Amino acid sequence: MLRKPPKEPPKEQPSRHISSLPPDLIAKIIGFLPVSELSKAARLSRRFKVLTYSDDVYEPKLRQLGVHVAAAAAVVPAEGGSAGTAAAGADSGDELVVRLRQLPGGQFLSTQASYLETGSLLVRSSGKPARLEFKEIFTQLAPLYFDFRHRQKDSKLFREHKDLPEIGALLFRLRLLDRARFSDDAEDISFSLETTIEWFESMVLGQFESAYDRSDVAEMRKTATALYNLNGGLACVNVFISKNPIFFDHTYNPSLVASKLPATVGPSVGYALADDFAKFMDYMLANCTKQAELISQIFVPNLNAMTLFVNKVFEDSISEYMSAILAAAKTRENVATYLHTIATSIYLCTQFIDFISKNAQGVYVDADAARRAMIEIVRPYSDEYIELEMDFLNKRIKTELEKWDKRKSKDAKAVSPSSGQFFRAEQVQAHKRFVMNTMKAVIFAPVTLTKTLAQIGSGKSKPHRQALLNDAEPISADISPASDADHDGTVTYHLDDNSLNSLVSLELSLHLMHANKEALGRALVVAASTDMSKLRANVQRVFIALLKAVGERHIKVAFAKAMERMSKSGPVDESVNDKMVNMDSLQFFELVHVADLIQQMVDVYYNEDVKIWIDEQDFLSDIIVEKKNFERVLDDGVASGMDKAIQLQVNQCEYILLKQQKATDYNPPENGLFDWKPSEACESVITCLNAHTKLMSGVTEKNTMEVFLSEVGVRLFAVTIKNIRRLQVSQTGAMQLICDTNRYYEWATSVRVTSVSRLFSVLKELGNLFLADGSEELRKLVHDAPRYQGALRIEEIYELLQSRTDYRKIQKQVEAKDCLVM
């Protein structure tokens, strides 16, 4: 038998009574009632009284009236009560509070409030309940507000109050009350109130304008404060700006800028434009400073009137005059003048902002807002600046390189070691110091963008002039001019006067660095003043242009030319120069010296002016990669050219031996006389080596010199052995050979390279092979391995013995092998 399922109890229908709603929702609903109806809602029940008196109802109304509501709370007695009453009420009201918070939505009621039967309310930080504070405000404003039902200009507000700032503040509060719509007929009152406010604003603004025309500062301040209390007072600021004489001053007329320029072209034009704009900005700063004092007397500080005034100065006066200055710079068709003027103008604008924001009157100026206004007026010029700068810089680099090529082709001639154009060893450090000091004086001279600009408004000028233009004057009188143009267009490079090198130029590199420094200075000014996000990228582009010009297009080309010359070079005859020094080899080592100096100059410039603007930790950035490539150019050039230079030197020594070493030197006639002196060929080789070493020491670093001499020693040893093999040596001639080997050993010890000295000590021992008489003694010398220190194998020693004149007689005894019995 199946049982029927039990019937479900009927679902409880939701209550349709308002009392069943959550307390927070009821409080929100009560908040929408007109103020006049709130007392009726409070009389409905004890619960509705508590909800109607709660701050959840009155705090939104206070906010509508512009009153700040704090979150802190405390319990105080209601109006007419006492502390004791409040405490008793708190005890009796706990049960009601608990019940209210247990209802749905009760958790949203303030946890810091006590809802009491006596009417104790949430106390705000001001010390008054929200209902009482609203009551005070409403009681004060309601009579004035409701009077506008029937009156406007003759309302109670104007009859009871005569002070304009006070009237402005009350009208502002009445407007807030009107917009809160606390009354049923608020729409009718609103029209009358708004009409009155418009009339009051127009009347006060007219009084402000009349006071401005009379220069009545007190009246201007009163009317400006009235409008500030009413609606912020911007209308007064606009009147002050529109009537201000600074905008009608024709002392600096933009239409007359072009007429002030000199008739000639050159750096004077660029400085004339920059100096004129600097004077204009100085004049504007003086006028704005005077207006700051007046603004401080008229407007309240919160209005920030000075910032609005400065922005208007930028938008109207400065913008117009800057456009005229830059247009004049463009008409001269001189990119250098234009770039110089852009950077100067932007720099002057930033200086203007810095000075006016720190005015002596203490008037606040929002520097960020002024800077934004400045950025807007220079944006059309700053957006295209970096492309123009790079194009101009690349053209200037190209021009300098072409001048150098022209000079190089003109001066491509042989130089004699006796011409005095070689650096002596004692001169090299002095030369380095001179070059680096000159470079630092030129590159690190203080940069100023105009001839007369030091600090705006200071009235002082700096004692130097930075050559920012292509054909500008030198930086200071104690430094030789960078270049002097001859009548035929060639250029004299003074830092290169004592150099025999026609492949690379210190002066040219200094020119390029100077041009790069100027471009970098302008790029930093423009980027730092307009868009800091572009600063690092612009610095990288400018410096990379220098690295490529000096490295790829100058040093690398010079090394390639030096390699080509050394590849075609041959031994030098005595008729060319008495010391028979190979000039191509020496020129290569001077090239290494000069290129190293250039690299040091670039490093100093990079560390002082570039490194601070980039991220050195980003090893994949373009500037870090290009700098490593620049350093590799010198390393690759030295590595590829060193071998050829060494071989040229050794070939020259071999040439001397072949030409001057006589057959009778080591195999003299039987009746010949021996003078115990090195042979003429030996002395010539030593003279050539010493002359080349001495000249090289003036243009070569110590480490490079040591590597060079070490390799020369190894190859010269081989050439000397080869020279002995091709000659016949008698026992008498062995004495001459010993003199020569001793002389070679003296040279080897003089260069102070350990490996060379050790090698030529072996050469000195070879004389005994030709002096020994008996075959047994000779065999011992041949097999004395420690004597030759591994420099010669036994096979090579036997080959040398074949140069003995009596070798056929002793060959069997010398080459006989010992019989060993096992």
UniProtKB/TrEMBL annotation:
PROSITE patterns: FBOX. Gene3D superfamilies: 1.20.1280.50. InterPro entries: F-box-like_dom_sf (IPR036047), F-box_dom (IPR001810), Sec10-like (IPR009976), Sec10_HB (IPR048627). Residues 15-61 form the F-box domain. Pfam families: F-box, Sec10_HB. This is F-box protein: endocytic membrane traffic, recycling ReCYcling 1.
